[in-house]
């Protein structure tokens, strides 16, 4: 890739426009002096050479201190002692600190390592504007406006800081693949007003884009940049510059005497508004130009108020002219280098991942032949994360066995065992490898194999000069495998990996791998210990904090989980793009911010569509928003990626049933049980499907099978059987089952489960009209657990039992919490207090507010009752109709697989009340439906009233 080399003053000889030094790829005779792996100043690790400019070499490097990829430009040894060159480098850094904007590239640092002087800057992937124009000629006006607007926005910030660019030209404007434009190279800029020449009398700037005052060696200000900006806009609109003479010197000075021909006279398609902006920018006398780029932005807005920029076309066209190619081929399309302003930016915009079908990879245990246990289990997570830098690849290792629906893997996961698992789970590729000692260094080999056929896809090998270089070599091999699997952005694989695990020590990575293995085996305390050790070695290891959050949540330590995930969030710069999405998604799920949860996982999937776990997690975010069709759509996509994953089949079943598609729920539950006959949740999901179809006997039989499965299964079965009994109005049976189940849970130290049963018992007692026992049961529930749903259910019982003060205390407690869910349940308790206190209109207000915050089945049920008692029958009918249509959500009010379908039958009683009040001729049908459900048991205190109303 070519770009102009920027010299200043007497160091540059004026010549023809195409006689400009360029950045060239390294050739055999120009071998880089800094091989990959070299560390400068104890901080910057060289990844690979990029090219040679007039002042030195340019490299892609990794900043180990700030854990980011940068561009590193060195000064040739023969120039490193030149005061002017060194002064200019320092000037770039100082000016960059003054100009901070999304449309201005950043220069980070200036440093030296022995005799090597260098600067570091943003890493950009895209192309310079000059190359776009050369490749395409004139640009459509909307695209030109889009680019010039962004350039103006960057310059506006620079000028506000008192910085004038003084060398603005298309070569100094980078355009990324998404159309994002950035101004770069403030190497000859100056703060305040300065003349257009150096102290030696040499011209400053590029002649083709100089302003008249620069050509006349007069003082320059922001309006000089505006003239250059006009030339750039002119060139984009017409494909050519306005001034053409035999020599560069004539070209430079003609602009001081002659006005430019308006672009609309050169190219008829130039809009009038754009033509007027360019003409005003190119006034010879600066007083006649725009006074500031802010005025240009105003005119651009007036000319193009809706910002009608063909973003998709711009992106695709930029991709066509992008010079991104294989480094080995010698093409340098992802970077632009200049003499004193080479800048790159970390904005990776890959081709749409949809070009590749989803690919799943299982990373087997690597063979460690070194005798050093530090390498045991350490390389596999590095390979996994590096592979997942490709949007279409999702990788698993032994620590993700549970994600595949498998029991913890015992023994060595060699190639044969990995292939058996891969074939059984429908994974496509198995990656194996080995590490051997070679003198004082190491040799690392890797192999990718098709799981079903056993055919070899790729074999590669690399060496590491010492132990510290092993992780670096590992990421390089992962890049090779990614490319072999079809990733055409494999040159960026190093960045994805090095931003995370290779940025820390080998010892820290080993502890992290140990912790992940413990986590996969449900040894959460052990996992916390190993994560903690990893953090002792590297306190900025973000993934370790994220792991601690997961382990803490599994242990029910909500506050610790929140603390750890916040620490992980403060270290996102130490994570790959995918891990950043995952960490934020987990945080939002933990915090109960459902819409943010949806947004984050949606963004993850847009970038990494093969991530089955992301699809599954997004499904839960949608279900929390009670959007079951969206939830079902996402979990089906997860199952399409991993068709033999039992959990995804179970979730399809549950979301189908929650969406009131009970037949699908039953069918998918049976499919899940075929995959895993011992799945507790499989039996629960099956029972839910049966309950929704009014197959109560079959549901009870399913729960009885679950009871024999395990201790946890027995606990689940007690809740399910009690729910069946309560649904049918067999209140005494429900009381017996719940009391027995709660006592068993207390003895087994399952406090949350015990609390759930006590809360269900309190509800049963309230239906029986026994307020005292209901209050006692609610108190026992709160004694066992104070999780959100238990406080809500207890508050609802207290309100219904006339204990308004106690209910209000629970509501206030919930309202004080930040999570939306807690605040919603506080509102629902307040509404129930108002309803039971005889103030239905106040209750309506509270219930409506709650439902606006979170759309829940119980919220609509409570609102329907309040409308009924307020005499608003049409509104009540609407709410109860909604509850009937969404009856699947009543299967588990909190969508946590705790059975609560017994809340549903009373809907028919209230619908009967509403229709009777409306004098609907068929109102009695609802009463008869209620009697068909609970009439046989004969225990419900409502039965007498319902029978009486039904006979009217």
> Which outline best applies?
globular
CATH architecture of the domain at 128-321: Orthogonal Bundle
Number of distinct beta strands: 19
Name the quaternary structure.
single chain
* Average pLDDT level: 81
Distance between the termini: 89 Å
CATH uppermost class of the domain at 128-321: Mainly Alpha
Helix content range of the residues, please?
A: 40-55%
Number of helices: 39
Low-confidence stretches: 1-31, 187-204, 305-354, 490-499
Summary?
The protein is α+β, with helices and mostly antiparallel strands and 952 residues long. Helix content is 52%, strand content 10%.
Structure characterization notes:
There is one protein chain. A hairpin with a 2-residue loop joins strand 5 (107-113) and strand 6 (116-121). The strands form five sheets. A six-stranded antiparallel β-sheet has the order 1-2-3-4-6-5. Strands 14, 15, 16, 17, 18 and 19 form a six-stranded mixed β-sheet that branches. It contains 39 helices and 19 strands. Helix 15 runs parallel beside helix 17. It is an alpha+beta fold and 952 residues long. It is globular, with a radius of gyration of 35 Å. Among the domains are: 128-321, Orthogonal Bundle (Transferase(Phosphotransferase), domain 1); 353-503, TolB, N-terminal domain (Rossmann fold, 3-Layer(aba) Sandwich), CATH 3.40.50.10070; 510-575, Tetratricopeptide repeat domain (Serine Threonine Protein Phosphatase 5, Tetratricopeptide repeat, Alpha Horseshoe), CATH 1.25.40; 710-785, Tetratricopeptide repeat domain (Serine Threonine Protein Phosphatase 5, Tetratricopeptide repeat).
């Amino acid at each position: 890739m070519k770009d102009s080399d920027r010299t200043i003053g007497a160091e540059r000889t004026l010549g023809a426009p195409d006689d400009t030094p360029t950045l060239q790829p390294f050739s055999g005779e120009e071998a880089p002096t800094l091989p990959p792996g070299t560390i400068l100043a104890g901080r910057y690790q060289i990844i690979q050479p990029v090219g040679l400019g007039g002042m030195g070499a340019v490299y892609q490097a990794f900043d180990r201190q700030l854990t980011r990829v940068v561009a590193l430009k060195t000064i040739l040894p023969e120039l490193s002692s030149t005061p002017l060159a060194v002064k200019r480098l320092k000037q770039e850094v100082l000016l960059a600190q003054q100009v901070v904007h999304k449309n201005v590239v950043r220069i980070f640092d200036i440093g030296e390592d022995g005799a090597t002087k260098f600067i570091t800057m943003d890493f950009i992937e895209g192309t310079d504007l000059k190359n776009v124009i050369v490749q395409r000629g004139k640009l459509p006006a909307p695209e030109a406006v889009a680019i010039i607007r962004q350039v103006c926005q960057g310059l506006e910030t620079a000028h506000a800081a008192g910085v004038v660019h003084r060398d603005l030209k298309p070569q100094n404007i980078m355009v990324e693949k998404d159309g994002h434009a950035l101004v770069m190279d403030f190497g000859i800029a100056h703060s305040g007003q300065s003349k257009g020449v150096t102290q030696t009398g040499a011209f400053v700037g590029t002649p083709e884009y100089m302003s008249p005052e620069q050509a006349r060696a007069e003082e320059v200000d922001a309006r000089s940049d505006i003239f250059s900006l006009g030339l750039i806009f002119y060139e984009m609109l017409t494909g050519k510059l306005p001034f053409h003479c035999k020599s560069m010197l004539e070209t430079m000075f003609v602009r001081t005497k002659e006005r430019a021909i308006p672009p609309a006279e050169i190219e008829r398609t130039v809009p009038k508004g754009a033509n007027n902006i360019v003409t005003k920018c190119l006034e010879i006398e600066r007083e006649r130009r725009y006074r500031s780029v802010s005025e240009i932005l105003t005119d651009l807005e007036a000319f193009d108020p809706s910002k009608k920029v063909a973003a998709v076309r711009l992106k695709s066209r930029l991709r066509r002219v992008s010079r991104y190619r294989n480094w080995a081929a010698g093409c340098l399309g992802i970077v632009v280098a200049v003499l004193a302003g080479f800048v790159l930016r970390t904005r990776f915009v890959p081709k749409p991942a949809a070009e590749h079908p989803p690919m799943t990879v299982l990373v087997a245990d690597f063979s460690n032949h070194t005798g050093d246990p530090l390498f045991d289990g350490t390389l596999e997570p590095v390979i996994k994360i590096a592979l997942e830098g490709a949007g279409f690849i999702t990788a698993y290792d032994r620590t993700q066995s549970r994600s595949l629906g498998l029991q913890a893997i015992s023994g060595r996961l060699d190639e044969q065992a990995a292939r058996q698992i891969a074939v059984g789970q429908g994974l496509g590729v198995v990656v194996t490898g080995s590490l051997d000692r070679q003198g004082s260094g190491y040799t690392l080999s890797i192999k990718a194999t098709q799981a079903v056929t056993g055919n070899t896809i790729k074999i590669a090998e690399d060496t590491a000069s010492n132990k510290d270089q092993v992780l670096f070599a590992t990421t390089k091999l992962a890049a090779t495998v990614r490319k072999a699997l079809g990733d055409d952005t494999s040159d960026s694989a190093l960045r994805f990996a090095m931003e995370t695990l290779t940025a820390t020590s080998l010892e820290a990575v080993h502890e992290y791998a140990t912790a992940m293995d413990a986590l996969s085996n449900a040894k959460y305390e052990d996992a916390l210990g190993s994560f903690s050790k990893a953090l002792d070695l590297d306190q900025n290891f973000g993934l370790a904090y994220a792991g601690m959050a997961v382990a803490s949540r599994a242990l029910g330590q909500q506050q610790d989980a929140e603390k750890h995930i916040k620490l992980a969030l403060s270290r996102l710069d130490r994570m790959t793009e995918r891990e950043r999405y995952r960490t934020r998604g987990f945080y939002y799920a933990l915090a109960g911010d459902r819409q943010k949860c949806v947004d984050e996982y949606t963004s993850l999937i847009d970038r990494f569509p093969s991530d089955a776990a992301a699809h599954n997690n997004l499904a839960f975010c949608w279900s929390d928003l009670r959007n079951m069709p969206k939830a079902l759509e996402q979990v089906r996509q997860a199952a399409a990626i991993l068709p033999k994953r039992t959990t995804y089949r179970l979730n399809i079943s549950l979301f189908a049933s929650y969406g009131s598609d009970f037949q699908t729920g039953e069918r998918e539950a049976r499919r899940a049980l075929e995959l895993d006959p011992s799945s507790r949740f499989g039996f629960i999901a099956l029972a839910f499907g049966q309950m929704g179809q009014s197959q109560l006997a079959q549901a009870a039989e399913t729960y009885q099978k679950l009871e024999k499965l395990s201790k946890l299964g027995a606990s689940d079965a007690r809740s399910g059987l009690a729910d069946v009994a309560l649904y049918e109005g067999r209140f005494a049976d429900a009381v017996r089952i719940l009391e027995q189940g709660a006592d068993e849970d207390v003895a087994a130290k399952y406090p949350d489960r015990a609390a759930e049963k006590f809360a269900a018992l309190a509800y049963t007692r309230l239906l029986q009209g026994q307020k005292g026992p209901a209050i006692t049961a609610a108190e026992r529930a709160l004694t066992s657990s104070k999780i959100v749903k238990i406080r809500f259910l207890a508050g609802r019982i207290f309100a219904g039992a006339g204990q308004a003060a106690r209910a209000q205390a629970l509501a206030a407690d919930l309202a004080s919490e930040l999570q939306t869910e807690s605040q919603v349940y506080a509102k629902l308790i307040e509404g129930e207090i108002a309803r039971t206190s005889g103030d239905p209109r106040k209750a309506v207000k509270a219930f409506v507010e709650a439902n606006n915050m979170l759309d829940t089945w119980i919220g609509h049920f409570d609102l329907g009752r309040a409308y009924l008692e307020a005499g608003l029958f049409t509104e009540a009918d609407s709410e109860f109709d909604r509850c009937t249509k969404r009856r699947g959500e009543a299967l588990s009010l909190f969508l946590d697989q705790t059975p609560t379908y017994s809340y549903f039958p009373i809907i028919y009683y209230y619908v009967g009340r509403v229709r009777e009040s409306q004098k609907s001729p068929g109102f009695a049908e609802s009463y008869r439906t209620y009697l068909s459900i609970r009439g046989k048991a004969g225990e419900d205190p409502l039965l007498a009233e319902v029978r009486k109303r039904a006979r009217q």
